[in-house]
Specification:
Blueprint (H helix, E strand, L loop, with lengths): L18 E5 L3 H13 L3 E5 L2 H10 L4 E5 L6 H12 L4 E7 L3 H9 L4 E5 L3 H29 L12 H13 L6 E4 L6 H10 L8 E5 L5 H9 E2 L11 E2 L1 H4 L4 E5 L6 H13 L1 E2 L8 E2 L3 E6 L3 H6 L5 H7 L2 E4 L10 H13 L7 E2 L1 H9 L5 H15 L4 E2 L25 H15 L4 H8 L3 H17 L1
Parallel strand pairs: 1-2, 1-3, 3-4, 4-5, 6-13, 6-14, 7-10, 10-13, 15-16
Antiparallel strand pairs: 8-9, 11-12
Helix pairs in contact: 1-5, 2-3, 13-15, 16-17, 17-18
The structure holds adenosine-5'-triphosphate and magnesium ion.
Magnesium ion binds next to α7.
Length: 466
């Protein structure tokens, strides 16, 4: 793609099957693991000693090592250490004996992705493998995309590296190489127009016109003549013929913004134009062919509008060939620091005063819900930079609705997961971040040390009775 040069893997390209190395000196466990992995369509390698395992790692790329902790010669811990050092892209899952939760915790602390307690059941092992492989895939995809994105100002002006934005970039990338209609949905200020521009300017039509039409701003009586054009004498004051916006877009892109606000009678006319790829300028008997690609956007719930009879279902179907849903900013809070810094940069330049932001102020910006999304954040930073007095932006420089509260709100998770799973992940992460120090981990989690112990024991016995 010429405009941005970003070439992410498209979702329909199947990645090669992952390769899993199973290391255990017990034949039964090794064979069971091998069968489970093979059944899941993944490639397997097996080793009964760490020496064999290291040889295999040396020879071929391995995505995941599943190792028993008590494997000869150097043992699972040392193997884990060497893999972390020499093959940082390879994940490790350890097999621990029942009743040795301490060693599982220790393995997590040393960088294992997960652990499973022996004896285990096949579905449990399969789930864990699936989970680890999926997170390896996501990590790899995101790393590639991040590297590409970080080396550029952004994707067509869009900033953000959260996985929700990465998904948007992929879709943009894909649709920009085609001509079919795109419908962009999302709350106000989430970047719908930027996406429309990005599709146009990174695609096949980038050297053709991009014509935005704000359907909510057009005077209802003039929409038809604006869109379709008119001929001389079509109505009082029509001194000359004038091509409409659909015609003006030529082979380029017609961006129908706020399509949800298009009056019902115009919806029928637009539908006909899109179906027949022809229009009839007001007052004309001649039909004019149209070739523009159509991208539509709205912050309204268009499907609800269809149900309520406010928006024609047939037009909805015609526009909704590909749908891009823009995530609200509160669902991609990890992008806030990046956006804040970009906006600081953008607005600081003219007067050169404020360039950085205090930790407290950043925390407020992250905690806030941003109903007006990126636009609201951009405005807040612009205002703060203009009104701020020192070289560092403080909480007091932010809009007053950000001065209080917000802190008690938990950042929303990107993914909806069962509570138990969220808890398990939080515990594993806290242990990793606190280098296995359970007291510190418990503090991070805001629970007592005994509760943490109880939960770890519970996982241990659950995995046994599963
Ligand atoms: N991901 C992003 N990265 C950088 N800037 C963004 C991003 N998303 C939005 N913006 C900025 O936020 C502002 C609003 O974006 P845009 O006009 O595209 O939103 P919109 O979804 O069309 O909003 P509305 O529904 O109100 O028309 C613009 O100034 C745009 O540059
Ligand atoms: Mg808009």
């Amino acid at each position: 793609m010429a405009a941005t040069g970003v070439e992410p893997a498209l979702p329909n390209q199947q990645p090669a099957a992952a390769t899993i190395l199973i290391v255990d000196d017990e034949d039964t466990t090794r064979n069971l693991c091998r069968d489970v992995v093979a059944d899941a369509g993944l490639r397997t390698r097996t080793a009964s000693t760490t020496e064999q395992a290291l040889e295999i790692l040396d020879q071929s790329p391995i995505d995941l090592v599943i190792t028993d902790l008590r494997v000869p010669q150097i043992g699972g811990f040392e193997l884990l250490k060497r893999v972390r050092e020499s093959y940082p892209q390879t994940a490790v899952m350890v097999l621990t004996q029942y009743g040795t939760i301490e060693s599982a915790v220790d393995a997590i602390r040393r960088g294992a992705a997960d652990y499973i307690t022996k004896p285990f059941h096949v579905p449990e092992l399969r789930n864990k493998i699936d989970r680890v492989i999926r997170s390896i895939e996501i990590d790899q995809e995101n790393r590639v995309l991040r590297e590409q994105l970080n080396s550029r100002p952004g994707f067509g002006g869009l900033l953000g590296v959260s996985h929700k934005m990465v998904r948007v970039y992929r879709l943009i990338e894909k649709v920009s190489q085609h001509h079919y209609p795109v419908l962009i949905l999302g709350e106000s200020g989430t970047g719908k127009e930027l996406v429309a521009r990005s599709i146009h300017f990174s695609g096949l039509r980038k050297n053709r016109p991009f014509v935005p039409v704000d359907c909510s701003a057009l005077v209802p009586t003039l929409i038809e003549s604006e869109l379709f054009g008119y001929v001389k004498g079509a109505f009082t004051g029509a001194m000359h013929s004038k091509p409409g916006l659909m015609e003006a877009a030529g082979n380029g892109t017609l961006f129908l913004d706020e399509i949800g606000d298009l009056p019902v009678d115009l919806q029928a006319k637009l539908l006909r134009a899109l179906q027949e790829r022809e229009i009839k300028p007001v007052g004309s008997t001649e039909r004019v062919p149209i070739a523009a690609r159509v991208i539509a956007a709205t912050n309204r719930d268009l499907e609800a509008a269809v149900r309520q009879g406010q928006f024609r279902q047939d037009l909805f179907f015609r526009l909704n060939v590909v749908q891009i849903k823009m995530p609200p900013l509160r669902e991609r809070k990890t992008d806030i620091p990046l956006l804040v810094n970009a906006f600081l940069e953008k607005f600081s330049e003219p007067n050169g005063r404020i360039r950085t932001i205090s930790e407290d102020a950043m925390a407020r910006l992250i905690a806030y819900d941003w109903p007006g999304n990126v636009r609201e954040l951009e405005n807040a930073i612009e205002r703060a930079v203009a009104l701020g007095s020192g070289p560092i932006l403080h909480v007091g420089d932010l809009p007053s609705n950000l001065h209080y509260g917000g802190h008690d709100r938990l950042p929303q998770s990107d993914e909806l997961l069962p509570l138990e799973e969220l808890e398990r992940r939080a515990i594993l992460r806290a242990l990793r971040e606190s280098s296995g120090d359970k007291l510190a981990a418990a503090r991070l989690l805001g629970i007592g040390k005994t509760t943490l112990y109880r939960k770890l024991k519970q996982y241990d016995s659950e995995s046994r009775s599963n």
